[in-house]
Every structure is written in C-alpha cells, then in structure tokens.
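Sample 3 of the quickstart, ligand zinc ion:
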Amino acid sequence: MTDTELTVADGLVVSLDYTLRFDEGGEVVDTSAGQEPLEFLQGQGQIIPGLEQALYGMAVGDEKDVTVVPADGYGDFNPEAFQVVPHDAFPPDMSLTPGMGLHMRDNSGQVFEVYVADVRPDGVLLDFNHPLAGKTLYFNVKIAGLRSATDEELTHGHAHSPGDEQ
Ligand code: ZN
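Result:
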C-alpha cells in the first residue's frame, strides 16, 4: 500500500531502510537490510529528531546520508546516570550479565530501557544512558514506502504493523 505521489510529511507512515555507522565509511553497527524496514508515524517523535527532520519531503525510493549529532540523537553521555540497585530488586532466577538491557517503568508508566553495567557483591550497577548516547550517528536511509496513517494510528500517535492491535 504505497502511494508514489506522496513525500514524507506529518501523519504519514514511513517505511525506512537504514544503515547506521559510527564513522563515515566505517563498520555497519545497525541495519534494516535482511529485515523489514523500520515503520513509524512521521511527526510523532517515534524516531530520533535528527533523523525525523531529515526525512521531510523525501519520496519513495529517495536515498540520502544523514549525520545526527548527539543533541539531535540519543543525547550526551551522562557519567552520573548510574545507580546501584540491590540484588533483591530482581527476580532470584534472573541471570544478569553486563551489557544486557532491562525494561523498566517510570512513575508515569512509560517503559524505558536501562543497561546492566556491572554485577557487584553489593548490587547491580545500572546504566541509564542510552547505548548510543554521546555518539554522532551516520545514517544512510532510503524511503521504502509511504502511506497515510489510519485514524487509529493517528489517535495512538504511532504506526501499527498489519494485524497487531497496540
Ligand atoms: Zn496503537
């Protein structure tokens, strides 16, 4: 369901093929190649602002390189954003290893991800920084598809995959 007359604008669901590097011409650290393109509702902050802003006006098949500085990406790395949490805060059968991501819920019910930085005798050191915080991101992106969002998607503020009811 792709309309070739469309260009990226608020209220459209974008299917995006992307490749991410930390250096121009460097090693690929993330890519949609071999998977479904990333799908999101443009204008809702579903993706980082530096990438979302760069997509406006692109048509299906258009491709470009986008450099995103930390302020427009995942923010600066905050050396204070670490916290030791007692072992008994986690289920006893849960095996925690450095680098693993955990889903937590803040006071407003919003789910966010934190990372295990270290497992110590006195507790688990959690890193609240996003793993991409502080990094300049070099994307190559291509618009794989564009469609109008459904009323439900517009109400929810995010794209739905076919068949799922979020
Ligand atoms: Zn939804």
